[in-house]
Amino acid sequence: MNTIAFVEMLWRDVRHAWRRLCASPVFALFTVLILALGIGVTTAVYSIVRGVLGPTPGVANIESIVNVYHTPYGGLPMVAMSYGDYLDFRSRQTGLQEVTAWAFFRQSFAANDQAETAFGEAVGREYFQLLGVIAEMGRTLQPADDKPGAPPVGRRE
What we know:
Elements: H1 3-23, H2 25-53, H3 83-92, E1 102-111, E2 114-123, H4 127-131
Antiparallel strand pairs: 1-2
């Protein structure tokens, strides 16, 4: 379809919509008011939630952080990619300053004869540096912690 035909079709649709709105002005006014109310309420709720929760505390430059997802050909986006795909992506990409890996997990455990569920993240060594987070106690991950067979990092009791 060429540009002129597209513009003519668009103009015809706009004229038709305008005629329909003029034919029932009460309905048109009601529709515009309901849309304005919906947009206003949505914006207010978002502003309140953002004001109360605020940006994630302690994270520097949160506006520049992005998530990259893996999508198999013809499939739905996946939340995670394999470690091999991550290493390949990390070595080939040129558009991002830093790249790190993270994976959300849920772990069940038993303590004091009660079963509990804990949630956590497995992260790459660059994770805390990328977020700009400074450890309040102890230390963050180091390059040696990211090697196969490295001892676990964490608080010991």
